[in-house]
Design brief:
Largest sheet: 6 strands, mixed
Number of strands: 11
CATH class of the domain at 95-217: Mainly Beta
CATH architecture of the domain at 95-217: Sandwich
CATH superfamily of the domain at 95-217: Immunoglobulins
Structural class: alpha+beta
Helix content: 10-25%
């Protein structure tokens, strides 16, 4: 029989299952505590970083008052500042000092050219005057000798008032393009057309009549 000798090493005692479980529980608790500690430090650091430094005056956006804009750099004056205010009419306006004039844009017109008839009213008073220069008051009349050629009232569909305040020494004008056709009262058809020759234009405004303006029509 062979006798087994002693190897000189002391045999370890087996580890108790209860002790092993305790070590595992303790290790798990330590890991949990460590994870919570690290997570809290990370969250705290993120909070500090998110706050960031306070903005300086140069970082803040510029605030403007509502309804204001930057001043223009062109240097040109505002149109409203240079406009002259309309004078208020005053008493003492003498209608005798209101004059009416007639004029054409040319002295003579070739075939196919239509005259532009202009009525001009001027205030000769020293005070502003209110003047009705509406179509209800004005008339453009073209004659040739004793022949009444045209009147703007013959075929006027409607009339209206237009009161203007005219400053002392100032004028108001109204233009009428004449198509070189005859007209008759009641807007009756007139087949004959004006021939080449000399014509007279007279402007009327209310009870006032202008001097004669002479012009030529070419054939």
């Amino acid at each position: 029989m062979v006798r087994q000798g002693n190897s000189g090493a002391t045999a370890r005692k087996p580890v108790s299952p209860i002790y092993r479980r305790r070590r595992l529980v303790v290790g798990a608790i330590l890991l949990l505590v460590l994870a919570l500690t690290v997570g809290g430090l990370v969250a705290l650091s993120s909070a500090f970083n998110a706050a960031g430094p306070a903005p300086t005056a140069s970082d803040s956006p510029r605030q403007e008052k509502p309804g204001t804009t930057e001043p223009a750099s062109s240097g040109s004056p505002d149109a409203s500042a240079s406009a002259s205010p309309t004078p208020s009419p005053t008493s003492g306006c003498d209608e005798k000092l209101l004059t009416v004039a007639a004029a054409t844009d040319k002295a003579g017109y070739g075939p196919g050219e239509n005259p532009l008839l202009t009525l001009k009213v001027t205030n000769g008073n020293q005070v502003p005057c209110e003047v009705n220069i509406g179509t209800s008051q004005m008339e453009y009349v073209v004659t040739s000798g004793s022949d009444r050629i045209f009147s703007s009232r013959d075929c006027q569909a409607e009339s209206s008032d237009l009161v203007k305040t005219i400053a002392p020494g100032k004028s108001e004008t109204a233009n009428f393009p004449w198509d070189r056709k005859r007209s008759a009262e009641g807007c009756k058809l007139v087949p004959a057309q004006p021939a080449a020759g000399t014509y007279i234009f007279t402007a009327r405004l209310g009870s006032k009549t202008s001097p004669k303006a002479v012009f030529q029509l070419g054939g």
